[in-house]
Each structure stands twice: as C-alpha cells, then as structure tokens.
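Components:
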Amino acid sequence: MINTPLEEGYFTIRDDGQPVLIGSYSPSSGNTYYPTRKLCPVTSEPVETIELPIEGELYSWTFVRMASIGSQEKKAGGGHGVGQVDLPCGTRIQTAIAGELGDWEIGMKMKLALLPVKQDGDKQLCSYQFEPIK
Amino acid sequence: MSRDVYVAGVGMHPFMRNAPSCRDMYFTAAMETMKDAGIKFQDVGALYNGYIGGEMMEGVSFAKDLGLTNVPIVHVENASATGSCAFREAVNAVKGGECDIAMAVGYDDMIKFTRSKAISAMAGPPKIEQTILPAAFFAMWATRRMHEAGTTVETFAKIAAKNWNHARHNKYAQRQSKNIVTPEEILAANEVSYPHTTKMACAAGGGAAGAVVVSKEIAKKLANGRPLVKVTGSQAKSEHYTDGHVFLGAVIGPEDLTRVTTQALYEESGIGPDDVDLVHVHDAFPIEELMYYELMGFCGEGEGDRMVADGETSIGGRIPFSTDGGLTARGHPGGPTGLAQVWDAVTQLRGESDKRQVEGAQNAMVHMMGAGSICIMHMLQKEG
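Structure:
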C-alpha cells in the first residue's frame, strides 16, 4: 500500500514516511499560517509556501464520542481525540490527536504523524494527526 | 439618510425536534410576526429570508404563501448568525429609507439539513476540512479555560441547568422540562466531547421566527398602547487576526471578535454593561456563555465562574443571560435562532414575558456568532 495524502495542498509525505504540513510564510508580517493563504491576512502582501515544523506543544484537547473522519465506527474507548498544537513558528494547528482519554496534558510535546483514513485501490489515503512524544 | 428604527412585531413557530415542513413553519412565524405588528403582507416594503439548509430560491417560494406584492426579497446566510443577519438587513433597509416597514423571517430544520449534508458528504471521499467536528471546538475552548482559570465542569453544568430552567417557562422552547433541572442531571447525561455532555449541547431541531422593523412614525401608529422598542445599536464584524488564529474548517473564532463587536455596540448605542438588563448570546455550549460574561464586560477576566456561583446570570440575578433558555434549551435550528433572541428581547422589554420576566427591563442585548467567523449584535431599548 502506498501512503497518499487524502487531499493535495495540505501536507506532503517525505521518503522516510514522515508527513509535513504545508503552510504560508509572510515576509511582510513575519507570520506563518496553516493551511496556505493566497495573501497575508494581516498585510494583504504576497506569501511564500513553506514546510512547517513537525513538532509542537499541545495547547488544548478533547475526546469526541463520535466516529472519526472516514469511519462509521467508534474506536475502542468510544471516540477520538482532537487537539490544538502550537508550532514553534507561532502557528496553531487544529488536528486529530493519537491516544485515548487520559493520555493528554496541555503543554506536552507532540509530533506530526500519518492518520490512515481510507483505502483506494493500492493507495492508503491518509490524513494527519499529532501524537505525544514519549 | 439615517432614521431611528423600531421593532413593531415579533413572532415564532415553536422550536422542536420533530418539526413540520419548513414551508409551514415559515408561514406560521411570518403570520404571527405580522399579527403582532398589526400589519398585512401588503404593508411590507422589504423582506429578508434567513436560512442555512434550504434549496435555491426556497425562501422566495415560501413567501408566495404570504402574497405576491412586488416586494423585494433577499436571502441571507451567515451560519448560526443567519437570523441576526436578516434582522440587521431589515433594520438597515428602514434606517436607510428604502422602506418604512421591513420584515425578517428565519427558518431551518437542522435535523433534516445535517442528515442530508452527511449523506452527501459520505458519497464522496472524506475531506481534510471535515476532520474536526463542531463539538470539538467548544470542548477544546473549555479544556483550555479549565487549565488557565481553574473552571470546573460543575460551572458548565450550572450554566446549562440555568438555561434549561429558563426554558421551562418558554412555550416555544424545544427543551421544556416538567421538573427543575439540576446541575447533577446535566453532568449525568452522556458525554459528547469532554468536558461537555449532551445536556450542555445546544438543542438541534427545526423552527422559525420573524421580526418586523419600522420607522418611528409607523411604530407610534402600531404601538396600540404597548411601549416602543427601539434598535439603538446594530453591529456586524468579521474576524481580525489574533495569535493562535485557526483557519482550517469551521472554528470558534478569536475570542476578541465578541469583545470588539460588543465595544462597538456600546459606543453606538451609548449604553454600557451597567445599563444592560438582559443578554442573549450564542451559547452552543456553556463555555461560550461563561466567556461572554467576561468578553462583554459584565465582570473582570476570570470572574465568570463567580458570577455563575452567585446566580448573577439567572432571571432575578444582576444580569440575566439566555432568558428564554438560550441555544441550550430554547434550541438552535440555525436560520431562526437570532430572531428568536429578538423575540424574547422584545417581549421582555414590553413586559410580556410572564414567569420569565426580567423586572424593569429597559435594555436588551443580543449576540450571535456565525461559524466563529462573524459576530452580529443588536441593542434594543424600551421607549415610553
């Protein structure tokens, strides 16, 4: 199976299998955004497409008692984790997070990982999630 | 041209889980609204329909049940703030002199709408933008608040219980408990998304609501012995960039959006938080109402929990919030929600709210967020 992004433009998968989010950097404001912007939302000046850091800190989290994306069934534990992760570049990512209720603490270190969602022929379509760094 | 604008009539179709057709609800709400104002459809100079889930031109089609009068009809949509947006457009039509009488009608059936949308979404591959469910946004806001301010789940439960109990005396509310609802019952309900339970979540269902706004001259003619209700402020703002801004998918938006919009409303209306007698907010979950106490200036930062503990936001308290049950218990069909807020605010200012009445109410403030990205607020004032 070949891991493939669910949609183009949000992240890429490196040769070593590590996903990397694609964002925008604004030279005029110094801000970094995710997902990509057509212009800097602060200055309306052009932005540059960049790869974002793959590690960050958990800003907040929850455990949703519903099936996650692409699934009609709840996982063992009855739902899925969702969090907000602050990257060192100042960008906050709202994202699925790996683990179960009780696994997360605000401020803990997190790293980007693939989240398999659906098979399409020989492709494993993937979204992304952050998982605690142990 | 800028004229004073008054609310001459309000009306509703009950909010409910198993609702009749949107066409029937629209008709009922529009007729109740015009009856309350004492006008006929032939008197309406501009009509604004607010709905999220309908088909193309659906509102125009529904309006044909009211009459064919050449009246200009416009469809507006801004997610949860749709009804508020329709109301604001009607206010601006009268304010700007386009007409002397304008009507806003909002309707939706969120149960049928979300089911249809879910079936449509499942037909294709899942999307990155759909990864996060709305319940999660508010829950993460709550988790962060608990971390920063020491807020407990009991505070959220008390806010929700208060709103359930306010709705007990609202015949149009979706959730009408026969018994007093306790915070313990709220906490014992199934969890939706930690730390929120199903009884903290806004009630999804169907419903419709409307409002007629008029010039001062017309308002006096239609008053029929009732006090006039003046629109002293109308504000709408979209986001500005703040640290930690989230762009992907629907969001709760920056907290600052409510603060900025409220400040503009206070300035426009010449009314400050000490003058406001009751408030309606977008309380999809109790974390929202708690945060808005502070963002609207009714207490200092981090003091919202104390307001809840002291019962300050209950009817009879210092500044009652969600006096008809709010989104939590009156319900949140989508399109009509902001107009339901106006219905309660107007009846409160007229002194017609019976067991829900806020004694001596002079100023009422209403607030709705649209997908976290739009904030629409109005200030209504009793006159005479």
